[in-house]
Amino acid sequence: MAKSQPLSPTGQLLTIEDIRAFYDANPLPTSAIDVHFPLSQTMDGSWRTITNAMGEMNIAADPIQNKSSIPVSGRRGYKSVQGELATFGKAFEMDAADFERWHKLQENFARAQNADAAAQLLAFWDNDLANVRRALENERRYLGYSLISNGCSLEFAAANSPYLAGLAAMQYPVQTWQKVKTGTTWTNAAATIIDDIKAFFIDLPKSKGIRIRSVKVSGELFGYIRANTQVKSYCATLVMHLMSQNIPPSLETVNAMLAIYFGVDAIQIEIIDDQITRENADGSYTTSNPFNSIMAVGSPEPAVGRFEWKQIYTESPQRETYQSFFMVGSYKEEKDVPYGKVYGKANAFPAVDAYSHMVFLKTNADAW
Q1: Burial (CB count <10 Å: 0-12, 13-18, 19+), residue 72
Q2: Alpha-carbon gap, residue 325 to 135, rounded angstroms
Q3: What is the rounded average pLDDT of the residues 181-206?
Q4: How far is 349 from 344, CA to CA, in rounded Å?
Q5: Bridge partners of 361?
Q6: What's the pTM?
Q7: Where does residue 111 rank: exposed (0-12), middle (13-18), buried (19+ CB within 10 A)?
Q8: Cα(339)–Cα(98) distance, rounded to whole angstroms?
Q9: In angstroms, rounded to a whole number, what is the distance separating the alpha carbons of residues 20 and 210?
Q10: Which of 54, 94, 210, 243 could join 98 in a cystine, given CB atoms 3.0 to 4.6 angstroms apart?
Q11: What is the C-alpha separation between 181 and 171, in angstroms, rounded?
């Protein structure tokens, strides 16, 4: 942060310089969500897909006779899906005991004037700023991965999103052929997973003029994939000791096998293994992977859409600023009992541009 203590105009706990300095000094590394749902700013309060539903069809040109006009086709299959952005946020409060600790840290720094005292003073606020950013980024992951791993359908109920329960359910016009199921659950080591990959992620989409290159699965599901008898057998040609020692192959080994076995139709598996803690309606917390553990989701590329966000009107520019897709600020109230908080707020939602080119496979053999 920029200073050893914040300036304190009315209602301000931290200056925007403090906030910006922390985030500038502690940037987030690029992660999978940045590839799958890169940020995209919108000017209104809604999100919308932008990809032509038939945009990747390998359609040939029509023959033209001399002195004839060019044959014209309509924008076949073009659909733009849109919906409202969700507003979500997180705040971390500071009560009288926290203020007392803060003042003691200030006194300690004024007295000691050393690096350790300064570090303790800065860390007091850095934790809150880091937690605000983590909370907003985690909601971004929850929304994106929950949406695509449930067939591009997501309902906001009090049970899973108490603060988003009033938002309309998201239901993309996914076609029936895109929602498929296995004949045998992949938790069964005898399941023919390689055959399923070929049937559902290569042959089926190719019959529709689509090539699937990326298949996303949860870390839990990949555990069953790498322990599968057929998968280990196919990988054994690359690493011969696997069968004798019965060691499950790594993600790199499985992808190398798929690249060799399927050649130009090679599929690469991606693991989504985020563990996100969210607050329930009753105030309790649940930690889980937002990516549905029974689903394997195929797409032409690792990127499946964008995370669209709109800038929120800043009521108090002296204590609120923007970081990435969310607004972050602080608030201080000097009364009989002092109170303060550091908070973040966003108006955003994922848009799955590739929805019409994706395949959603239930690997537990249950019907949709």
Answers
A1: exposed
A2: 12
A3: 97
A4: 16
A5: 180, 296
A6: 0.81
A7: exposed
A8: 9
A9: 44
A10: 94
A11: 19
